[in-house]
Amino acid sequence: MTVTVEDVVTRYEPVIGLETHVELSTASKMFCSCATTFGAEPNTQICPVCLGLPGSLPVANAAAIESTIRIGLALNCSIATWCRFARKNYFYPDMPKNFQISQYDEPLCVDGYLDVEVSGRSYRIGIERVHLEEDTGKNTHVGQSGRIHGADYSLIDYNRAGIPLVEIVTKPVPDTGSAAPEVARGYVTELRDILRTLGVSDSAIGRRAASGRLHRVHRSVYAVGHTVLGAHGRWLAAVLACRPGAVLSHSSAGALWDIRSTAAGRIDVTVPGAGRPAVPGLRVHRARELRAGDVTTHRAIPVTSPARTILDLAATLPERALEKVLDRAERAEVTDRRALLAIAAASNGHRGSARLLRVLSEHVPGTTVTRSELEERMLLLCRAHGLPRPLVNHHVEGIEVDFVFRRARLLVEADSWRYHRDRDAFERDRERDAIFARAGYRVLRFTDRQMRSDPHAVAATIAALMR
Fold first, then answer.
1. Which of 55, 132, 401, 463 has its CA 20 to 30 A from that of 164?
2. 87-145 pLDDT, tens per residue?
3. pLDDT tens for residues 13-55?
């Protein structure tokens, strides 16, 4: 049995808790005088202390302790009058001492909080502790995989080993529900602004971007390690580039739900509330209100629900294109007629509401799923000449037929020369026609050339047999 993220979120309440690492911008390391210059040649900023050689003794960096206290005060923490460093023992190749000097049961800062606002509601994020430790070195696994599994060999750079590192640990944050991702984002955004204002940490992002480890996608949104993003990566980056509460929407959401193909150059994102950010490459829509049922998360991307997506598309799509979206949604089983009628009725004033209700009154989702341009042309022909809407790709006597006018017991096959030009196809078509005749159906066959060059004659022939 496959369990999706949506299933888990429906059955359980998300309770977030975050541990954030902050690399301090001190001139020297935490327990020795080695430089902390980013991008230096490997293993050129090391000494007996940060290599853990016998007889070397650590001395705490006063500037790092002061920066940690300033962070604690900014987060409304209590500052310990006395604290202790401890050895965190575990083996890892880039820890030369085989232990990390950290703080365990007696950290420097405890019991704080940070208030963040998301979609008009304030959340208090409790801070469990802010403690100080040293960073580890850097492993580079050489080989095709880029990981330790499958690597030909590994290289170790100890320049980073011993750099002051602050860990900010929150308490569990209950009652966030489906807003948990936005609350988490709001927290780290506010925290980043505080750290920048305090001046305790350089722009690690800027340094990593300059070295090619991060690649800018949008403002404050980066791809890690490479510049090529798939569709899902671009969609998630687009949502993250807008303000908290933003969701993928319209054609982009339709593509994510697999109910509409899109080759659009711009990605659609909807933001709640007043105003909308201008983000290059994105088409940002503003919604006065996004109800709880209007948004969800699919494949880890915040997105409008299938019903809301179809409502938004109804505002701009031609009616036949909207029918195709409804057909694909029915096949994918992502929503149903009842949900669509409910959201259209509840969204009085939305530009797509009236059109969606009108299409639903005339169209049964799932009955006109087409597979070719020829089938689409046939449906347009019926609409233009006032013919009843046929069932598409429907089974009669166990055989799939292109179009079925059920009341008239009339079948129409749209035959292209490409698939009906050999003797086998000719014989097969006649066998099918005989089966249909025995069941009381009449069969009309039209070629793509007939439907394209003389649609009036095709429509007149169908109409004549339906009298």
1. 55
2. 988 887 888 888 899 998 999 999 999 999 887 889 999 999 999 999 999 888 887 76
3. 778 889 999 999 899 999 999 999 888 899 999 999 989 899 9
Helix axes 353-362, 337-346, angle to 10 degrees: 150
Query: Cα-flanking dihedrals φ and ψ of residue 308, to 5°?
Result: -65, -40
Tokens matching residue 234: 């671009």
Crossing angle of the two packed helices 306-314 and 337-346, in degrees rounded to 10:
60
β-bridge mates for residue 65, sequence order: none
- Please enumerate in sequence order all residues whose Cβ is within 8 A of that of 180, keeping only pairs 6 or more positions apart, or say none: 14, 15, 16, 173
Contact 69, 77 (CB under 8 A): no
CA distance 301 to 182: 12
Pull the structure tokens for residue 171. 């308490």
Tens digits of residue pLDDT in 363-419: 777 666 666 777 778 888 888 888 988 888 888 888 888 899 988 999 998 876 655
449: which residues sit within 8 A by CB, 6+ positions away?
A: 417
Q: Report yes or no: 30 and 163 within 8 Å, Cβ to Cβ.
A: yes
Which domains are present in the chain?
A: 14-202 (no CATH), 212-304 (no CATH), 305-362 (no CATH), 373-465 (3.40.960.10)
Cα 135 to Cα 31, 96, 163, 195: the distances in Å are 11, 11, 5, 18
Please answer whether residues 242 and 282 qualify as being in contact, where contact means their C-beta atoms are separated by less than 8 angstroms.
yes
332 and 258 in contact (C-beta within 8 Å)? yes
- Asked if residues 181 and 162 have their Cβ atoms less than 8 Å apart, the reply is no
Rounded Cα gap, residues 90 and 217, in angstroms: 37
